[in-house]
Amino acid sequence: MYKHVKRGLWNHLMKNGIEMGLASIIYEVGVASKYVNHAMRTGDLGLAGTSNLYGEDQLALDVLADEIIKDRLDHTGRVRRIISEEQSEIIIFDRARRSGGYAVCYDPLDGSSLVDVNLSVGTIVAIYAGQDPLQDGCRQVGAMYVLYGPRTTLVYCAAGTGVHEFTLNSLGEFVLTRENIRIRPSGKIFSPGGLRSDYLPEHENLVRHLEKSGYKLRYSGGFVPDINQILLKGGGLFMYPATTRAPSGKLRLPFELNPMAYLVTAAGGAATNGRQAILDLECHDLDQRSPIYIGSREEVELAEKILNQQ
Ligand code: AHG
Ligand code: MN
Ligand code: MN
User: Fold this and answer.
1) I need a labelling partner for 9 at 20 to 30 A (CA). Which of 169, 170, 176, 268 fits?
2) Which residues surround the ion ligand 2 when the cut-off is CB under 5 Å?
3) Mean pLDDT across the stretch 91-119?
């Protein structure tokens, strides 16, 4: 028992010297994730009867997960503004001071449409210093995700102090299971994204090259498990490209791409839109989308080479 407490999330944040406000945000998302975890395993899997900014039908679980995380972030008293995939505008918390503090962008339940067929889903969070949640990804001071799979795991990086994984144990504690995670420089799996019939020629060329080179296709339809596998197992490349139907791709910059790019880059990987680093993209809209090529450094460099061949 004592060993567990020593290896707990809060002790790790303090040992890493993470500023109390930033540490409390990461810790409170961990607390919220336990309630999300419980709701998903016991609660209503049906539609909420509402839709979000993207015109996507919201599941009761999307709305509930959003409420739980929003309340815990407000509870810290250190978060002033948030952007959520499930909210149509930036939310301001009155409790937090009007200066300093943090701003948070999050996707409360990414891949939520997979829950009713019992596939893994996740929560994704980006954290910025100050009052503005619409900042370029390179200005993040922390990011994390929670993966609700056969085990519930939490991966965070804050203030550039390494990427670390915690696993929820039977006592309800997140206990350190991997520290200072490094992604392989090159891997063997690829996640193509999108519909093949909608591919642009350059993305088709890249996918064909990877198939001919013997890469194994791994694509669950859940961004968090797909990235987690590449980050923790053998490296590789996750893609969600620009397509004929969606020239900016599908995934959103503020609460899906920026946090994952921060984590994968901090672990020694890379993330681009095919030309420019995701973290360097100007983030100006809460519903801004971008194509993404993210994972092992060698595969991202290969992708940029093939995508930009004349
Ligand atoms: P969300 O459920 O938050 O809308 O996100 C789902 C995303 C992401 O999890 C995944 O990578 C992608 O949708 C899969 O899209 P396709 O079904 O078009 O492959
Ligand atoms: Mn999502
Ligand atoms: Mn979502």
Assistant:
1) 268
2) 107, 110
3) 93
Q: Which residue has the higher pLDDT, 12 or 57?
A: 12
* Segments of the chain assigned to CATH 3.30.540.10: 9-178
**Residue 3 neighbours by CB under 8 Å, 6+ apart:** none
Domain 189-307 class in CATH: alpha beta
- Calculate the CA dihedral of residues 24, 83, 148, 263 and round it to 10 degrees: -70
Q: Please name which of 225, 226, 222, 224 lies closest in space to residue 191, comparing C-alpha atoms.
A: 226
111 alpha carbon to ligand 1 midpoint, in Å? 5
Ligand 1 atom nearest 121 alpha carbon: 9
Which residue from 240, 243, 286, 292 has its CB within 8 A of the most atoms of ligand 1, so it is best to mutate? 240
Q: Where along the chain do the CATH 3.40.190.80 domains lie?
A: 189-307
Nearest CA residue ID for atom 18, ligand 1: 194
The closest-lying atom of ligand 1 relative to the alpha carbon of residue 191 is 11
Please tell me the CATH code under which domain 9-178 is placed.
3.30.540.10
Mutate to test the pocket of ligand 1, among 69, 223, 252 (most ligand atoms within 8 A of CB): 223
CA distances from 10 to 13, 20, 245 (A): 5, 10, 44
User: Which helix (H) or strand (E) element contains residue 204?
Assistant: helix 201-212
pTM exceeds 0.85, yes or no: yes
Using the predicted structure, report yes or no on whether residue 277 has a pLDDT greater than 90. yes
| Banded pLDDT at 3 (limits 50, 70, 90) | low
Gyration radius from the chain CA atoms: 18
Kindly give the distance from the C-alpha atom of residue 233 to the centroid of ligand 1, in angstroms, as a whole number: 21
Q: What is the pLDDT of residue 156?
A: 98
